[in-house]
Each structure stands twice: as C-alpha cells, then as structure tokens.
Write a structure and sequence with these properties.
161 residues; alpha+beta; Jelly Rolls; Translation Initiation Factor IF3; 2 domains; four-stranded mixed beta sheet; 3 helices; 12 strands
C-alpha cells in the first residue's frame, strides 16, 4: 500500500498474515494477533509478505480521551484494581486513559491480561523510578463473560451494555 495518512488516529489489528509497517524511517513487523497505533496525520505505508487480513479502526481525534488520567497514588490500595477495571470496562474500542501510579503496577497488568484477554494494550509512557504513567487502551470489546475484582478478593460479574 503506498504512503498515505489519516486525519484520525488509526488502530491496526492483524487478524492473519505478516506485514511490514513503515512510519517515516521507523519500521515494525506486524503478525497475527498484534496491534499497532498510527497517530493522526502520520505518513505511513504497509507491505504484505503473505496474504494478510487486517482490522483497521479509525478512532477520530483521541487527544481529549487520552488526556483523561486515573491517578492511583492517593487511592487506597484495596480500591485501585477495581477502580481501574471499572474505568477500562467503560472504554470504547480504540479509546484509552493514562494510569499514574507510584510503583510499577505489574500485578495489575497481569490481572487485566488474565481477566480481559486480548482486550487491552498496556504502553508505558514513563517507567519509574518514582512515577509510572501507562496508557491503557481498549483494543477489543467486552466478550460478555467478564468478571471484575472487588475489594476482599471477591469477583463481580460484568454485563455488557
């Protein structure tokens, strides 16, 4: 595909195959199950190495949505994970929020990957040592069988809206 750009942010999800993605001088390989994001207005092109299927979502200008921040530093520890899950579950596909914390929330990331498999992208913006900022993006909708943590290690069933 020749070089082009989009006015909106674009999410590209590889369903099958293998492509090379070029944005300016940057290069990335994209294979089945992988996702990448293209900022609005960025010139880019794709080269397919084999028959490939891509899901391309143009999410509009997401600057306002990405500016929303969930700062966990003053939130009691028992409420942090349920709060993040609630925030994430309200996101539309392609939308994101910035998570701010005073430590690297690796256990939260693992829990989200386990309880929301294939639904999120976790991208570090700032990685410590005193502050951690992570962009959490929804890349797939709720499946309908999700549960969420609530304080006391109990689990609540989520119904899609």
């Amino acid at each position: 595909m020749p070089e082009h750009s989009a006015k909106e942010m674009v999410t590209v999800y590889a369903i099958s195959g293998h492509i090379s993605f070029y944005e300016g001088q940057a290069h990335a390989e994209l294979r089945a199950g992988e996702v990448l994001w293209i900022n609005a207005g960025a010139l880019h092109r794709l080269e397919a190495h084999e028959d490939s299927s891509l899901l391309v979502v143009r999410a509009g200008n997401t600057v306002a949505a990405e500016a929303e921040e969930l700062d966990l530093r003053e939130v009691p520890r028992a409420q942090r994970h349920p709060l993040v899950f609630a925030k994430f579950d309200r996101l539309a596909v392609g939308a994101s929020f910035i998570l701010t914390n005073d430590h690297d929330p690796v256990p939260l990331n693992r829990q989200m990957e386990s309880m929301r498999p294939g639904q999120l992208a976790w991208e570090y913006i700032v990685r410590g040592p005193d502050i951690f900022r992570i962009r959490v993006r929804r890349i797939a909708p709720l499946s309908g069988s999700e549960t969420s943590p609530i304080p006391g290690n109990m689990v609540a069933r989520i119904r899609p809206s």
